[in-house]
């Protein structure tokens, strides 16, 4: 038997065209890191506590100083409107209903104002162009629409090569469904390409130009995490982009503990990649993450519309609460010494 | 060729209905811990002693100060009368004949008095309800029927989710075959649900209200073991409930040594989960357990009635004695340095 | 393509009856140690030396003070006359021609005098009976027939259980082909069973009653090795009896280094189990063995008669010499630091 | 989907006769080291840097003091003219066009002068004969034709045994396609066999008789690397000959770091074996190699002629540049701390 959660991708397969499915599933090159992500969380073993009062379990966390009811957020993903006509709006509504957090890609196909109007708590994810000033209107639009933070993705100076089977998604996508928060002709302007020279100064600039806290997404090294926090980042997001950038990048499950050691006292640390179940959530929290982000699962759930995303949050919450309870943890902070040492086979 | 012992589950398959078989075999969630239990004992390698006199080998052990002829006991399992009409009585008679120890589930389908009347040495396993006083009559009944200890199961604040294929056992079970040692209407009373707030104080209460030594079942962490012993437990039973509660819980084979280190000088330490052969018994004893408990094997054997359980004890004893002899060990205490270091692949 | 050496068992399959093949191949219980033996040598990786003069390579070794041209000997095996009518004599002649060493089982089907008459260098392997005096005539016969040492097998207080598929060899064997060096009716005498109380004193007794150096076969632990050497053993033979006694015993490849550390300065150390190729021989020598012994390969080769055994020695010698040369080693003593650390996955 | 690079061997399969394909692919004995080479690079995991300016990425390296645009060279391989009529000339032209480095086997089927005339930067690889003076004319010819260094292969005192399936290549090769840079009748002369007594003195002799820097190919041990450098080697080339000499030799990926530690401050260190992709190149550079060499891939590419080799360089360069960029490295020197520790499962 397979659970509703475990069947997400398979059900999406019945609904979505092949190029869309492939776009969502694919990893860079041989997809080693993509595949390993899922396996690396399930390699953790737990040492549950017993004889603790777990009558009331609270899975909620504080993210940048404000509480959400879910210990995960929705990671930014492009092409949500290609997956479902309601795209980011369905994602936003379902996430708002669950009192969760949504991170919206700057490639989104829905105007920020409409997303903000759903009442969801949201953060903007941004790629910066070579000419930073070209991003200013988009950033301003997000601020105006209520984004509470900016997530700067730093692992994508160029897009990692993927080996497409069959027709590429980009050959078929309706341009009206992508990057609608940029002015017309944006991509043709000189300097519109992704910046290849991001640096700590960009964090300053982002924070000052938006007035928002900055989260840096795509960090795997403790030294880089330190640089980010020293440059004013409020949080560091450990990610290898779902295995879509440098293949054979270390699993985030393996990278996380050193990043937490390096900056956990001074900033929040999030993690994404391969989280698929409540036990995975528990493993990530036990490894020291302040929260987890989900990339592909909400996209597959979106194939079933707002209801799909709502059910994703509900099912994962039920699994997570059961896992916390059986692990003898009343809240996320109680999970920190759950892992059997050594937690993970060296990679 | 397969041995009688190795063929236990397969033969049960020919006799028992599918939902019963599934109920016995299943683990929580993905059954990772259930599967790993068996593999983890067989991963141990031995460094046998030679040139020791092994003419007389004594496999017996002292359990809570009284000798049994077998270095294992029968772990508590629900639904024995569903597996075989003679249920707990067949289990008791065969175990008594082997001078072994039986642990009876508080969910048993046979009155304690009948079990006690077989003359078997037995312990009561209890789940405590939210309202502890509701358990008092059942506990008193067990004391009266000669239970020599109470085993408190602490790993089940809620029952771990299992994914049933086909009809669930609970849809078909005759209620007369379960929990007969509680008064009628017990489950409908407020406070009858399993307690979610067990704590050390419950050990005190149990010991005082029954006058029996208390064993805590379901401990995996050395710190919890310490808490139990400090609260007066006579023994700690390392168990992940056969993988039926928190999936991805550490194998008991991996958890055992640290628990022995933490409390072995002050209390007895037992272990269960995945023990299937004399070599598994040897590995568990060599890891420091004072005794081993068997969950599923006696249930499968029970499908062949009292004779099945008797043969289980006999076959396993023959294997264990041969293993001790070939390992150069005259008694259980001689097994302690048999394991090649590192004993177990880190998990 | 498979080599002549690698094809040994398969070719034997075409010649020998099933029960004989099974008798030779089988291990105790699940045959874990038997299977692992072969795998454990091939898990070693070499760090070959370069720019050393390997024009002349000498694979010979000194065994108990006398040189043999082969760095291995033939281990004792029962039922050689069942494998081939010429049995021990074919084994002896081929081994003599290669200037090798033969260890003859006390269960041999050929009179010691006939074996000695071939001119082969040979050692007697003995199991001692409960009543030691019953062994005296057999020991005296071996001394008279020129045995140069006694190998006492200490890992067999009882014979490890094997799971036979089909008819057991013992149901079919002609008793005239086994144990011909004992007087008639030997096995029926009281005290003729294998001793279960072997101890260091037996080494003394053996040495004194035969006047020969004593080798102890079946040692896996450094502490036991030490006891043997302190009791006067001239050599210790690291063996788990080809996996035929205690299953899940540590691979000899894993046990060897600690034994060499413990007694290598004071006595010779041999090893057997799973050696099948020149690279395996190299790995065993590099691990510190003074010589290697071969159990099953000579038996399979014997299915092809004296010529088979001769070819076994010749092929393995060619492989070993090539391996030594490519490893930059002129002699066995040069192999000691060839292994990449850590040499072997922990078991 | 498979990439052009990943499909190299398969496409060669459509063009080359079986014995040629087998000659190229084969490893010694069981081909363990050959197979493991590929797997060992892909076992590395990266900790990419972020927020570094990777606008301009320079993959070029200095080899013996002179810059090449590629961080790899073409390793010496015999029988190139059997693979393609243009043989070494096609290899040279394509490599020259890419501003790369070619190492030419002394077994080459093309006169050195013709190779030199292509303008390629090249080094001579030499096996020394027992009678060193027999090599002098060949060495002189190489010097005259512009070879910039001599690579002495030291892992081949004898050729490692391979198990050929079907007809051996040597039964079919036209002798005019091999070893054309030796005088006629060279192989029949006494002393023409490969030297089995190479030593440090040969490095002196080579350097003096050719006036060229000497590179030692086939080193796996740090102590040997040290001996080479102390004897005047300008570089040490970590290689197990593509697994074609001592099978079960350690993977070069495992051997490299210790060699770099031992001599990296005093000499260059190269590595070959199993490098098949840009990520493999990155792993080797990150492990401390000054450059990588490719054996089989250029041979398979040569089946498609000069264009094939040209495309090999171009595709691998694109992959390598992308890998460097995504790893946050502007140049090879930036790669040194990219590997997650422990980098490689112990072997
Ligand atoms: C289809 C898809 C589109 C993505 N688009 C973006 C994006 O626009 N911006 C971004 O920072 N990350 C993007 N990512 C990466 C995700 O934010 C996230 O890091 C990753 O998917 C996490 O791994 P998971 O999918 O295993 O949960 C995308 C991932 C996928 C699968
Ligand atoms: C069918 C079944 C029913 C069980 N019922 C109980 C129970 O009522 N009380 C309890 O403490 N443990 C119960 N357990 C857990 C066992 O006591 C024991 O911890 C576990 O089965 C040991 O693992 P093993 O089956 O691999 O030997 C049950 C296990 C099984 C398989
Ligand atoms: C068929 C067979 C018979 C054996 N008989 C004896 C024996 O009589 N005495 C003894 O000490 N060991 C005996 N052994 C064990 C061997 O001496 C040796 O320890 C073992 O076979 C080594 O492993 P290998 O077969 O993998 O080389 C026997 C082994 C086999 C396979
Ligand atoms: C077909 C073939 C021929 C080779 N001939 C030579 C040679 O003549 N001289 C030499 O030093 N190495 C020779 N080698 C070894 C290569 O130089 C190199 O060390 C090895 O191929 C590297 O491994 P790779 O093939 O996995 O890249 C040969 C290798 C192959 C595959």
Automatic annotation (TrEMBL), chains A, B, C, D:
Keyword Nucleotidyltransferase listed: no
PROSITE patterns linked to this entry: FMN_HYDROXY_ACID_DH_1 (PS00557), FMN_HYDROXY_ACID_DH_2 (PS51349)
InterPro entries for the chain: Aldolase_TIM (IPR013785), Alpha-hydoxy_acid_DH_FMN (IPR012133), FMN-dep_DH (IPR000262), FMN_HAD (IPR037396), FMN_hydac_DH_AS (IPR008259)
UniProt cross-references to Gene3D superfamilies, sorted A to Z: Aldolase class I
Pfam families: FMN_dh (PF01070)
Domain of life of the source: Bacteria
Keywords, ordered alphabetically: Oxidoreductase
Cofactor(s) listed: FMN
Family indicated by similarity: Belongs to the FMN-dependent alpha-hydroxy acid dehydrogenase family.
Protein name: Alpha-hydroxy-acid oxidizing protein
Organism field: Nocardioides deserti
């Amino acid at each position: 038997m397979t659970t509703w959660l475990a069947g997400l991708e398979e059900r999406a397969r019945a609904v979505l065209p092949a190029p869309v499915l492939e776009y969502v599933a694919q990893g860079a090159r041989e997809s080693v890191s993509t595949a390993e992500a899922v396996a690396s969380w399930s390699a953790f073993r737990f040492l549950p506590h017993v004889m603790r009062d777990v009558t009331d379990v609270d899975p909620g966390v504080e993210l940048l100083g404000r509480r959400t009811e879910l210990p995960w957020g929705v990671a930014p993903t492009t092409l949500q409107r290609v997956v479902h006509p309601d795209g980011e709006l369905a994602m936003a509504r379902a996430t708002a209903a669950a009192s969760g957090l949504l991170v919206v890609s700057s490639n989104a196909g829905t105007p920020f104002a409409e997303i903000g109007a759903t009442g969801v708590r949201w953060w903007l994810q941004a790629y910066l162009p070579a000419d930073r000033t070209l991003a200013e209107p988009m950033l301003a639009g997000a601020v105006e629409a209520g984004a509470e933070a900016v997530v700067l993705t730093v692992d994508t100076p160029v897009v990692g090569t993927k080996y497409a089977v069959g027709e590429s998604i980009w050959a078929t996508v309706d341009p009206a469904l992508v990057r609608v928060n940029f002015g017309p002709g944006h991509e043709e302007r000189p300097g519109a390409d992704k910046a290849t020279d991001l640096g700590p100064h960009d964090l300053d600039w982002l924070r000052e130009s938006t007035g928002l806290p900055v989260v840096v997404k795509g960090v795997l090294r403790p030294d880089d995490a330190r640089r980010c926090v020293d440059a004013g980042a409020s949080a560091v997001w450990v990610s290898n982009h779902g295995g879509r950038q440098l293949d054979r990048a270390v699993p985030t499950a393996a990278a996380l503990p050193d990043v937490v050691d390096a900056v956990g006292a001074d900033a929040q640390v999030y993690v994404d990649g391969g989280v698929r179940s409540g036990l995975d959530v528990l493993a990530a929290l036990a490894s020291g993450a302040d929260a987890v982000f989900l990339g592909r699962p909400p996209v597959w759930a979106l194939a079933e519309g707002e209801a799909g995303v709502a059910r994703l949050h509900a099912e994962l919450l039920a699994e997570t609460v059961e896992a916390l309870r059986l692990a003898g943890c009343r809240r996320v902070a109680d999970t920190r010494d759950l892992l059997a040492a050594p937690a993970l086979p060296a990679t």
